[in-house]
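Batch job 17 of 40 flagged for manual review because the log was empty.
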Amino acid sequence: MRLIIIRHGESEWNRIGRYQGQADAPLSALGLRQADALASRLCNEPFDAIYSSPLQRALKTGQAVAQHHPAVPFVIEPALLEIHHGDWQGLMVDEVKERYAAGLAEWREHPTRAQMPNGESFSNILKRVLDFKERIYQQYRDGIVLISTHDVVVKILVADALGMNMDRINRIWVTNASISAIEYGDDLPYLVSLSEACHLGRLEVARENQKAL
């Protein structure tokens, strides 16, 4: 199976530096343009299925791609939701730094043991993402599947493919509206591309301009 993984376009909350998690922030004006550029880049790919997180920033990004593939099944998949940020959701970056400095440092450096207050555990998102990967691999073993999802989900899939320590996932940068690709088969999984964004050109958001991660 070839798994094509896209991160959603820039959301309004990405743009202003507000933690979103499972809060349903819309795409920004730039994010909509990014989604269109991404869709054009993928318009000729022979997908067997397209899956999307139900949150509108990922859903609209996935739908932009799906418009070029009207015969391909489009499935809304809760397993692709971003990690729930609990009490951080809706707070600006500086507010999280002020109120939850120790927790934020732990999330950045040791996410597997971090627990955002009233949020989702890392073990839970890890299980739901890897269970989803195994399920679609069994269904599309020889196919090409696109998923439209979020930062932490992309990082987990990449780290899993590389056999990385999951505490290192925040050393991976995933650009909005970028493409990562993993190939699964009887041998080892292979990371084919990571955060590829040449289709964005000047629409790409630099890492330094996105703080709420």
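Reviewer: the log was empty due to a logging misconfiguration, but the result itself is present. The mean pLDDT is 96. Unflagging and moving on to job 18.
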